[in-house]
TrEMBL record:
It comes from Byssochlamys spectabilis. Residues 335-346 have a biased composition (Basic and acidic residues). InterPro entries: SET_dom_sf, SET_domain_protein. Residues 335-360 are annotated as: Disordered. PANTHER family: SET DOMAIN-CONTAINING PROTEIN 5. Residues 347-360 have a biased composition (Basic residues). This is Uncharacterized protein.
Amino acid sequence: MGGNEFARQFMTLPNKHRDAYQGFKNVFGGVIETCHFPANLDDNPAAVVGLDSAYLNHSCIPNVVVSFLTPEDIYGEHAKQHPDEYWLRAYTCVGVAEGEELAAAYSHLNVPSAIRKARLKGFYGFSCCCKHCEAPDPEVDGFLDVYGKIERTVIQPNVIDNEPAAALEAAYDLGIGMTSVGIFDYRYATLWEQCAVICAWHSDEGRAMFFAGRAHATYELIEGPDGRNTRRLWIWRSNIKGLPGYGASKRGKSSEMEAKLLIFNPRQQAQMLFMLGANKNEYIRLSDYFGLIGQGEDQTFGWSVREHDDDKEEEQTAEELEALLKDLEDEKKEYDQGRLAKDKEKSKGKKKNKGKKAKH
């Protein structure tokens, strides 16, 4: 839609700031002031108004993620022929009930509600009345109070280089916290991306591939298949050695094929992926873990750290790795079949109880 029809509908949008402008600007400027969504286009601050996005309010923990597409994103090499075409795209990032308001975050403020409200008032000029500020949950505020401290451990270069296990365990804690309070926006996607970068730094292709896959899947959910970050992570997945800083350290050396060790070990996936329980300055290679095959969920999880010669290729032979992966795949099938059988038993139990009359 464009031209006169867009202009006509634009003028009917909510206008709470009519009195702040003179003449024609009191309509045009008032609508923009009331309905715009803050943006950064080509590294320039902007105010975007769409006929639908005009009704999209702010929430500190949103159920919608907004992304912006530039002419380069849309038209590629033909972008110069469409210099003024920009797109605002909105995807839900969590389940939304019928009648629930759609809200996106103007910015991500990872601090408790009182500090968030003050900062939003100072920067955007409004008092946030989202449910997380109007009736703050102590659990959410408690998590956001320590968010910054945990995040610094995940992104600090010195920690990544010298205490990689501490960095990944902090990422695990951050991910668990986000899941518990319902944060599934860009913060969730960039966490997985940062984990991939940590592992790539230490030449750990297996973990980096796994984390990059999660980051790509999350970006695709919140940006769509042709989103800028979605396409960037797809390129990284296709060439894991293209991640920033890849190979600066050889401590975690592994192959892409070893990522399957994580896929076929659902019981111990988190422990292996984030090196849970390791000393903070350690880097446990995927090949160092032992006792995985046939190990139950209640058994002790462990690893054996070997001396490694980083100048040599120490990856298992293709035959050894294929044999191990075959055993793990068989174990995963048994595990999945066991879970399916339990689910069927539960379902039968529910059907037996359904419709029974109460005895008097």
